[in-house]
Design brief:
alpha+beta, 556 residues, single chain, three-stranded antiparallel sheet, 16 strands, nine-stranded mixed sheet
């Protein structure tokens, strides 16, 4: 009480040396002040507030720190202790690829709008300019990328030993906007682009991932004009050498790859190495096996293989005895049959249009213009029948009648029925794994969808994307590919941990869930000494599970 007025304090007392003493107090004010502060109508508004991207960035940073990505990079690419390290720059680029792929010019705005800015306090405006990124990318050599990737792969296999055993290999390409006459790079070349952008130069990328979890262990950039089969002859040597370095159980590894990568030279190198392989052959390479009736096939066990049957034989392939499987799938049969009917319908329609044009000339209903000649009609028919099996199924007769070209055609229904019975629904696998069961062989090859899903994710522009890429030298393109693979690695571990938390969702959905978690900061007072009060935004049940699994609260 002071001059008859009551002033309130919150106090805490304790015994000190056996005597009661006041150990803490805080002034609260008068009764009117306390009532006014507790009134909902007079709760003070903050002087400033901000919302930071939090969930996806914090989860990626947590995974990267668990794996020690930046530390491993800095071990092989040291620089003087000044500002961000090379590992920091590549890690920030990889996390950006995971969460919100942007150009180097736009990364700085994204960075300072995310929680990363509070966990890299040494970053100042200008440190993440495109020029600073390029300066540090210049320090990354091809040899360093190989050594860093090997060290990361060893750490992955130590952390996830269950992922070893079966590895999936495949290639893809990414188109670029590099000018046709730019001679400063050799990697971008025109080739068979899988996104149908034949008008642009492309870069080819080979990738090796684990069957369990899509963990990338190896990647290789090469010229966009090189076909898969020729490139695999070169890459398989690097691949075998890498596996010998990172995997102590090298002899137990099996590489699964697509039929497009098959070549005599590649098979020779694989046969000389301790690791095994599973691949496919063109269905026409063993015509005698296609005539074996389905009654002699053995049905596969398991819900995944419902209706699937196989015929197993030992055959000589590329100079060595291999296990060969003819696999019949009813679903594949239906798809092939429907596709064939669609192609036949399209070919019939085009042939009918061509026939009608020729009939107009033959009946004298048109006499102006250039009359169709035999060679021209034959070329048009060849183009119409260029699809698979069409030349076998459509019988075409082209002849001259009174110096006019006459066309007749028909679908050979008997040939279609024979082709459906002999070929449709069948695929041909081969391997040097003689002790594997039919189910294991077929299942391992079917799981190629895992690496195809990884490539689809890298072509996704929302999360873990290769695009945008504004680099035009081979060295920069290789570094870009490296941190894109790092992004794929972080994302794969995120998926593993999410499954452990009981959340099995696709990559896009997982990162969307995490991106929906924000950090909100309120500042009372304009002084730099006034620390903001922070909190994490509301989360649903799945987001809360992810928050707990990735320990996100410690980044808040």
């Amino acid at each position: 009480m002071i001059k008859g007025k009551a002033y309130y304090y919150a106090v805490r007392s304790a015994r000190v040396n056996g005597k009661p003493r006041l150990v803490w107090q805080k002034y609260l004010g008068t009764a009117d002040t306390i009532i006014d502060r507790m009134s909902s109508d007079s709760i003070p508004l903050p002087d400033a507030s901000s919302i930071l991207r939090f969930g996806a960035e914090a989860a990626c940073l947590q995974v990267a720190r668990e794996l020690g990505i930046a530390a491993i990079i800095d071990e092989y690419l040291p620089k003087r202790h000044q500002g961000l390290t090379v590992g920091d720059y590549l890690l920030i680029a990889a996390i950006n690829r995971c969460c919100d792929p942007r150009s180097k010019r736009a990364i700085e705005r994204w960075f300072f709008g995310s929680v990363l800015s509070r966990h890299f306090p040494q970053v100042s405006p200008g440190d993440l300019s495109s020029q600073r990124f390029w300066d540090h990318m210049n320090l990354v050599t091809d040899e360093a990328i190989i050594r860093i990737e090997s060290a990361l792969s060893r750490r992955l296999l130590e952390r996830y030993p269950q992922a070893t055993g079966t590895l999936l290999y495949d290639t893809t390409n990414f188109y670029t906007f590099i000018h046709t006459f730019n001679q400063r790079c050799r990697l971008p070349e025109r080739g068979h682009n899988k996104q149908k952008r034949y008008d642009l130069r492309q870069v080819n990328v080979a990738l090796l991932v684990t069957r369990d979890g899509q963990l990338p262990l190896f990647h290789y950039c090469y010229e966009g004009s090189r076909p898969d089969s020729k490139s695999f002859q070169t890459i398989v040597g690097h691949l075998i050498q890498r596996l010998a370095e990172i995997a102590p159980q090298f002899s137990d590894l099996t590489i699964v790859y697509d039929t497009g990568n098959n070549s005599e030279a590649a098979l020779t190198q694989l046969a000389a190495s301790p690791c095994h392989f599973v691949s496919a052959l063109p269905i026409s390479s063993c015509p005698d096996l296609l005539t074996v009736p389905l009654e002699r096939y053995r049905p596969l066990a398991g819900g995944r293989f419902e209706g699937v049957k196989v015929l197993r034989q030992e055959r000589e392939v590329s100079g060595a005895r291999r296990t060969v499987l003819v696999v019949f799938s009813p679903n594949f049969y239906r798809d092939q049959h429907k596709t064939m009917l669609i192609q036949l319908d399209q070919a019939n329609r085009k042939l009918k249009e061509l026939q009608d044009r020729l009939t107009v000339w033959e009946n004298g209903l048109r006499c102006k213009g250039r009359r169709p000649v035999l060679e021209s009609v034959e070329r048009q028919v060849a183009e119409i029948l260029s699809g698979q099996h069409l030349k076998e199924l459509i019988v075409v007769t082209i002849e001259l009648r009174r110096q006019f070209v006459h066309l007749e055609y028909r679908v050979d229904e008997d040939r279609l029925a024979e082709l459906a019975e002999r070929v449709f629904g069948k695929s041909l696998l081969f391997s040097d794994q003689r002790n594997w069961t039919d189910e294991t062989l077929v299942g391992s090859y079917w799981d190629k969808w895992e690496i195809e899903a990884a490539f689809r994710q890298m072509k996704n522009r929302r999360h873990c994307g290769w695009f945008p890429m504004y680099h035009w030298t081979d060295q920069k393109i290789r570094v870009h590919a490296f941190y894109c693979v790092l992004a794929l690695l972080i994302n794969s571990v995120l998926q593993q941990k999410a499954r452990q938390a009981g959340i099995a969702v696709e990559t896009d959905e997982l990162l969307t869930l995490l991106s929906g978690i924000h950090q909100v900061a309120y500042r009372y007072g304009r002084s730099k000494l006034d620390k903001p009060r922070t909190m994490i935004s509301d989360r649903d049940e799945e987001q809360q599970k992810l928050t707990d699994e990735f320990e996100l609260t410690k980044y808040a």
